[in-house]
Amino acid sequence: MKRDEAQRLRALDLSGLRDAPPEPDYDDIVRLAAETCDTPIALISVVDRDRQGFKAHVGLQGVGVQERCISFCAQAIEREGILLVEDTIADERFATHPLVQGEPFIRFYAGTPIQTEDGFPIGSLCVIDHRPRGLGESQRRSLIALKRQVELLLRMRSQVRLLKARNTELEQSQERTSALNTYLQAEVRERQRIERQLLEQQTLLSSILAHIPHSVFWKDQNSVFLGCNPQFARDMGLSSPLDIIGRTDFEMPVLSEHAEAYRRDDREVMESGIPKLSFEEPLRQYAGTKSWVLTSKVPLRDANGKVTGVIGIYADISERRRQEEVLQEAKNLIERDAARLEEQVREAHERTRQLMEHSGEAVFVLDAAGSVLEVNPVAERLLGFLHGQLLGTPFVALVPEDEREPLRQSLKDLLARGTVCLEELGLRSASGARVALGIAASLQVTGETRQLLIVGTDLTEKRRIEQQSIQNDRLAAMGALAAGIAHEINNPTSFVLSNLTWLQEWRDELERELIALPGLHPRLVESLSEAEEVIAESLVGGGRIRDIVRDMRFFSHTASEALAPVDIHACLDVVLRMAHNELKHTARVEKQYADALPLVPGSEGRLSQVFLNLIINAAQAMRTGGGLEHHVLRVVTALEGERVRVDISDTGHGIPPEVLPRIFEPFFTTKPTGAGTGLGLSISHAIIQKMGGEMGVRSEPGQGTTFTLFLPVSGRGPSDDEKQLSPVP
Description:
The protein is an alpha+beta fold. It contains 18 helices and 23 strands. The two termini are 69 Å apart.
């Protein structure tokens, strides 16, 4: 809040206008203002911090408190003289004002600020009309004069309040004087009562000091004894407490050994004014035996609170000290044993933590109710949950609905028998997928605490190896079958192709001879043309049979080619040119080649066969419609570590998820009968594996397919593990 605004609000508080009841004098002024200025509405407003109220008004029905931000009067108090708005609609400051557009539909406004004696504006006197108009000079002077009458009333009211306050103060002063006289009389009586009580308390204190089992003494500012109780006198070897008066610690045989330390404590208490409580110190008794006492010293003060000495009290704690020493020795022994046990427990916990963190298995620790207390990183990784997300979760909730009842029974058996094994249990991952685990569980009992240790072996790799073994066996069988079939078909195919070639040459020679003869029958010419087409189609079919046989022989591992450095980019460019006719009306080609891609050891012919197979398949997948405007064949290369990566992507119809795992199987195809043998992808996959690489695929139905090839940069051949690579990414 601005400084002037804060002072203005204080002036408003002193004026008495805030929330004050109506007064006839103010009502008369607003009626006179309305009559003088010939307006239907006149009012005296009070502008507070956030609102505007009305001290008096005429012609304004249902008036109440308004927000300051929409108040005309809030603007009137910010200027000297009269704020005159002859037509609010024509004035851009007020044209859209809510009080102009709505009740009371102000079209004319004239207001002048009401100021306190100190000159702070606290409200305004204003006149309002529902129609635009002006204000004559006499009306202006009258409005200013009426405003001064309001200010005069304010000052008169303020002076009246001041006089009333002074009268009230005088009356209160007289009441206080009367009350003081009454209080002094009561104080005299109270003093007399206290003196009697002090005498009684002195007698009681003397009795307590005489019979208390502790030693009490008191000294002056110079640590000179002023007195003591009988017990302290006996400790000092004196016959009476009076014998101690006037002596110092140095003059007492019992105290002289530690007199300097006693005096330091006295000075510390007297100089600081703070008691020194319950501290232990040695004391040699009159009989010569050394003992320990528990001492407290407090400052001795006079009636004005000034420190004039010190009071001390002590109790013999020698026996307690001996017992404490025995207890401390026992405590030290227990603490050493406890520390050793705690260290053993900590080491056990650390070993358990290390085992959990470095275990290759998924580990869950459950409480007796089956909720997760702890998990290891393997379990978090398998399920895809963060550590905090699993803690406190019922273990049963991690299992699919149809497997929960068997798990509940197994947990009951675990609590009863101590161990349980489950050949397979499915857990639900964060993505909703089922994760198969082999479970071995045991009951862990520590004191009264029972916990369940669940160790899960991920069966995914086991299932993958089993499936891969089945696939390898299938491929081996298919390879043997392919080799046999290829061998049996190869010879008759060669014989048929050789005869067809001779037959085509004979037909051509016969056609030349016959054409040279005159009067050749047209039907014979037509027959020779038909024979040419039949022989050509037979040669194409025979060539296709020969290609299939060749591919089957390669698939059966009967083919071998030496590896040589291959420029992947040059190989891809050649294949794209070969496939140009397939692509030119189907899709746009986008190439994103890596810079300075190294040469790859491999067979350029076989790699070209793989690339051509994948590109032709992609072109066929994009023939469903759309053409060049909608379909893109994208070829991307990159160097990732010691391997070259090649991505061949299309925007075709994609591969259904249920089909994707089988696309590398021999003779498996989704094409119509006669449109393909189902060997293209199988052979391509085998070629890449023989070169020590990997081949994978990802696809979304309706979005497209991407085949990814990884080829090693070094010249090493494929290892046994690489030959077993799964074709499913």
